[in-house]
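Could you help me review a protein record that somebody else here produced? This is what I was given.
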Amino acid sequence: MASIRLYAAAVLAVLSSACAGPVTTAPPSTAPPVDSAAPQAPSVAPPAGPAAHPGRAPRAGAPGARPRAVAAGSAEPAWTPPIVHTLAVLTVTRSVEAVLWPDPFADFRLERWGYHYGEAFTKPPLFDADQPAFRWDHDPWPINVIGHGLLGSEIYFRARSCRFGVPAAVAFAIAGTHLWEYGYEANGVRPSALDLVYTPLAGALLGELRYATWRAAAGIESAPARVLVRALVDPFGEIERGAGVFDC
């Protein structure tokens, strides 16, 4: 009977060790015994920051951290380049008008200027419905359709290339158009209702097409081809940027 009990106890011990899994025995400590009476050194916490987490990237602003890239479109619009560019374009255009059509644009008598400016600000814009389409202001249709479309697109595009949004660029084109009609040209002719509406509208459509093409040209791998496309889309702007006058 005793032998049966010993055999059963041995079987139970083997089954228990098998179910419990391998047991790891800690190696004997080689540290010297600690004297409870001696003062204990304060425990030091691991340093916080990048050294505590070697797999984590350093925070922005920390030594060795890479500066974050500026998000596209987050830069503020530049006002000086489009304003100066627009004033220069309007001045040159008005000078060309004086050469091509001396009467009335080369008449610099102050009394004539006073008369025309008075008419511009006391009467509604000119719109003669009896005239053919796009000649409602008595100007040839190529000047109204092509000339004013290009003028409006130049004003709009310069604002867009200097980081203006679409609504701001449209407002800039409207302001430039009113400056042309009531400032530059009003000393010779009465403002045109057609030009006041058509110039910024056509300018926004054509100018946005120019702007999209100008931006897409950045993806052209060939440098000469890239410069050629941008020069065709924005000749005056490329001259200004190439000369270091403006950066947009």
Residues 178 and 185 are 10 Å apart (CA to CA).
